[in-house]
Design brief:
heterodimer, A: about 450 residues, alpha+beta, MutS, DNA mismatch repair protein, domain I, Dna Ligase, domain 1, B: about 80 residues, mainly beta, 7-stranded antiparallel β-sheet
Chain lengths: ~450, ~80
């Protein structure tokens, strides 16, 4: 009923849509680069270990990760991609080699690459561990042609990182278009979209190609009768704002090939809004104690990141996916006060777990906290809580000095995996911001 | 082609010069391996201990060496052959 109403509303709204598509409105005087490393983790491994070069290989997830987090170009040619389960990859390519990830290596290589980029301009925004935006508007005036500048950057990166670590560069008048076209010529390519080419470009791309439009947003856009980027740009802006809030305005601009967001250097970026970790099991897990162990480990990783940044959280999310139901179950709960200890996060996550056993074999567990705030914890009048806080601080101090999981709650050790490291972007930001000066340049 | 984790203590002949560390050879399982090229180098941590890693090629195979700056010892971590 609601869908039917929305469909008829959409037809009515589309009939009212009379906003003309004016290419000159899209003109942005900036020149933005998006550097996207090709199969970054896999290429780093191939650079470090030459026997891996030219062979189908893939970096598997941390711990006993069950999925591929990066496949080499040779593996991709056989249909293997990020997220492919190891068993499926083996079936597609029996001689594929799986290697464990080396986050320290990736973060160091990324830090080196950011040093190269910031040698050109301060307007460098790390977007992920293997992507960075650059605003090179001023530099293009010096170099004359963005292509020449892009080639120079690629040459300097190759000299610094090695021949195997290549990147593709998207060049556009804004971040959205630079990101979009960076995938057009991979690997090791350069793609330039000029403002005059935008109207033609939007005819040939799908809504889902735009970074920021995922399956859920796509469904909602479809319900409004919007199926193409051109339709998005022609849709009345105020109606998109009514449907999506402030994001509606953004979507409308994207539909016209526009994006006004600036390239923001790391030190000017806002604090994180949430912190989360996910683990996909190698095999479906039937044992509740093992799942509790995974849950504890995820809570510890979330808690360590939270505390290392001086944050506390009020809202807790848990999601578990079953072997036969990827949708899974889970929920969100907000406390009246903020907490930061592993045990408190674990207790909140346990709220959403079945009281006894497991209804079905579990494939994936995700823990996330949001509603982050800074500041000192209020002094508790309950002595037990004060003791727990002191215990947490002592455990953190020991783990800081002697390494992760030197001391941990016993539930941690119900799963037998290796010790995973923090998320790549987290590790990158932490290392780049705090540890940059201390890095070795052997 | 295979990858194996070793994690064994090894003797390393290395040169410290111009603020850089360059492993030149290492002795593992009774055999000496001359380092042909250092393919990659990076730093990491185990708690407060600073670790320096070197991915090197020797005799056609690749090795991951680790220098512990606190203990001043070297470990052979992984072999790719």
């Amino acid at each position: 009923m609601v869908t039917g109403f929305r469909s008829s509303l959409a037809v009515s709204l589309q009939a009212q849509a009379r906003v003309a598509f004016a290419p000159d409105e899209c003109e942005d005087k900036r020149t933005i680069f998006l550097l996207d490393y090709d199969s970054f983790f896999a290429r780093c491994m191939q650079q470090a270990y030459p026997p891996l070069r030219g062979k189908p290989m893939a970096v598997r997830g941390p711990a006993s990760g069950a999925i591929i987090i990066a496949a080499s170009t040779e593996a991709k040619a056989r249909g293997i991609k990020t997220g492919t389960p190891l068993s499926e990859a083996k079936a597609l390519c029996p001689n594929i080699l799986f290697v464990p990830p080396d986050m320290d290596m990736y973060v160091n290589i990324c830090t080196k690459s950011l040093r190269v980029l910031t040698g050109y301009t301060n307007l460098v925004e790390p977007f992920s561990i293997d992507e960075a935006f650059m605003d090179v508007t001023d530099l293009v005036e010096v170099y004359g042609d963005p292509h020449i500048l892009a080639q120079n950057i690629k040459r300097d990166l190759r000299m610094e990182l090695g021949d195997s670590v290549t990147c593709s560069i998207g060049i556009g008048p804004n971040k959205m278009l630079a990101k979009l076209v960076s995938h057009f010529h991979k690997p090791d390519g350069i793609t330039h979209v000029r403002p005059s080419e935008i109207p033609e470009l939007v005819k040939h791309i799908s809504l889902i190609d735009i970074c920021g439009i995922g399956p859920r947003v796509l469904k909602r856009l479809n319900r409004l009768g919007i199926y193409t980027v051109e339709q998005l740009g022609r849709f009345p802006r105020e109606l998109l704002v009514r449907e999506f809030g402030v994001l509606g305005n953004l979507y409308w601009l994207w539909g016209r090939g526009m994006d006004l967001s600036p390239v923001t250097p790391y030190h000017q970026q806002e604090d994180e809004k949430s912190i989360g970790h996910t683990q996909t099991m190698e095999k479906p897990v039937y044992n509740r104690a093992e799942v509790d162990g995974v849950l504890m480990r995820l809570c510890e990783r979330v808690g360590r990141r939270l505390r290392s940044k001086g944050f506390m959280a009020r809202t807790f999310h848990l999601w578990i996916s079953f072997q036969d139901d990827p949708g899974g179950i889970g929920g969100r709960h907000t406390l009246p006060h903020a907490v930061d200890s592993t045990m408190e996060i674990y207790a909140e996550a346990q709220r959403f777990m079945p009281p006894y056993g497991l209804p079905r074999p579990i494939r994936r567990v995700s823990v996330c906290v949001s509603g982050l705030c800074r500041g000192e914890m209020q002094l508790s009048l309950v002595e037990d809580r004060v003791k727990k806080q002191r215990l947490q601080q002592m455990m953190d101090a020991v783990n800081d000095k002697y390494g992760e999981l030197t001391v941990a709650p016993a539930a941690h050790f119900k799963c037998n995996d290796d010790i995973p490291r923090g998320g790549p972007v987290n590790a990158l930001r932490k290392r780049y911001a705090v540890d940059n000066k201390d890095a070795l340049h052997p | 082609m295979s990858q194996s984790r070793v994690h064994e203590s090894v003797d390393v002949y290395a040169v410290f010069m111009h603020g850089q560390v360059v492993p030149r050879a290492f002795r593992w399982a009774g055999r000496t391996y001359q380092v042909d090229v250092v393919n990659q180098k990076w730093a990491g941590r185990n708690g407060s201990i600073r670790l320096y890693y070197f991915a090197v090629t020797a005799a056609g195979n690749a090795y991951k060496l680790c220098f512990n700056a606190q203990e001043l010892d070297w470990m052979l971590e992984e072999v790719y052959m």
